[in-house]
């Protein structure tokens, strides 16, 4: 999944030590809880020799898992998620939203209903435990023994959306379709139920035209970016800088404040 996940290039990997790049197979059962545990173990080892560690990424949930800690849930039979993913495929997101409303009205009001991953996660907890997803939230979390400074890069929405469209075109030029073809036998896996892959599976399965699939990748990527911005703007103070800002200026700003 090198191209579709925009993994660091060989040159980027050589420029600085990276961790957690291609360290898992798509067939391994992996989730944010496992990531939290492994990331903290790695961080504790790194802090023995380093004073500063940089966490880079766009998933707010995974960032929070490291910096703040997660609400922890019982282990759920993976067949429940598989069933819900099939329901999403055959009956659409709205059917899952209605089911969540019946099982957990409180979560229905608070989670991102347009995000199928969030809806399915809440439903699998409800179905697997017999208790509302909301009942597991906001418990006391383990304290972090490090200080977090959050830095965000921003731009006008028109620029962001243009960059996203260009990024998708570039991925296709680099061989995204061929990468997806090689992974087609595994399309049922949760790791591949993601933007860039699921749309091209629809094309390869004869459900969509190629041009429509590409337009959907761009649209869903833009939606994801919008959710990212919303998430981080709601978080504790983030230092926002224009994407054209010089790195030296960002560093100076951080050193002045902290």
Please explain how this structure is put together.
The protein has 258 residues and is mainly α. Among the domains are: 78-136, Orthogonal Bundle (Histone, subunit A), CATH 1.10.20.140; 153-258, Crystal structure of tRNA isopentenylpyrophosphate transferase (bh2366) domain (Helix Hairpins), CATH 1.10.287.890. It has twelve helices and two strands, in the order αααααααβααααβα. The chain has helices at 10-15, 32-46, 60-67, 78-91, 93-103, 105-110, 116-129, 157-174, 176-183, 198-204, 210-234, 247-257, and strands at 151-154, 239-242. It is globular, with a radius of gyration of 20 Å. The mean pLDDT is 92.
Question: Layout of SSEs?
Answer:
Layout: H1 10-15, H2 32-46, H3 60-67, H4 78-91, H5 93-103, H6 105-110, H7 116-129, E1 151-154, H8 157-174, H9 176-183, H10 198-204, H11 210-234, E2 239-242, H12 247-257
Parallel strand pairs: 1-2
Helix pairs in contact: 2-3, 4-5, 4-7, 5-7, 8-11, 10-11
CATH architecture of the domain at 153-258: Orthogonal Bundle
CATH domain topology of the domain at 153-258: Helix Hairpins
Radius of gyration: 20 Å
CATH H-level superfamily of the domain at 153-258: Crystal structure of tRNA isopentenylpyrophosphate transferase (bh2366) domain
Find the count of extended strands (DSSP E, 2+ residues): 2
Number of helices: 12
Order of helices and strands: HHHHHHHEHHHHEH
Q: What share of the residues does DSSP label as strand, in percent?
A: under 5%
Alpha-carbon distance between the two ends: 38 Å
Helix content: 55-70%
Low-confidence stretches: none
- Computed structural class: mainly alpha
- Apparent shape: globular
What CATH first level of the domain at 153-258 would be assigned?
A: Mainly Alpha
Overall pLDDT metric: 92
| Strand adjacency order, main sheet | 1-2
Main sheet properties: 2 strands, parallel
């Amino acid at each position: 999944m090198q191209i579709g996940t925009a993994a660091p290039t060989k040159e980027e990997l050589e420029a600085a030590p990276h961790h957690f790049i291609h360290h898992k197979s798509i067939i391994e059962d992996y989730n944010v809880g496992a990531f939290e545990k492994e990331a903290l173990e790695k961080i504790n080892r790194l802090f023995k020799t380093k004073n500063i560690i940089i966490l880079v990424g766009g998933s707010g949930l995974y960032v929070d898992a490291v910096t703040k800690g997660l609400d922890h849930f019982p282990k759920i039979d993976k067949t429940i998620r598989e069933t819900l993913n099939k329901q999403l495929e055959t009956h659409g997101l709205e059917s899952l939203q209605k089911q969540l409303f019946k099982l957990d009205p409180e979560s229905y009001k608070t989670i991102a209903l347009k995000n199928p991953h969030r809806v399915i996660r809440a439903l699998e907890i409800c179905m697997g435990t017999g208790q509302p997803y909301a009942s597991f939230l906001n418990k006391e979390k383990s304290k972090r023994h490090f200080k977090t400074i959050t830095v965000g890069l921003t731009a006008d929405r028109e620029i962001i959306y243009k960059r996203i469209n260009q990024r998708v075109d570039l991925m296709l030029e680099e061989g995204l379709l061929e990468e997806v073809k090689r992974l087609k036998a595994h399309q049922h896996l949760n790791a591949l139920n993601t933007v860039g892959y699921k749309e091209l599976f629809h094309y390869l399965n004869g459900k969509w035209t190629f041009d429509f699939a590409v337009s959907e990748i761009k649209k869903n990527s833009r939606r994801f970016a919008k959710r990212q911005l919303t998430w981080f703007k709601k978080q504790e103070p983030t230092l926002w800088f224009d994407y054209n800002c010089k790195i030296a200026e960002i560093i100076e700003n951080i050193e002045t404040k902290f």
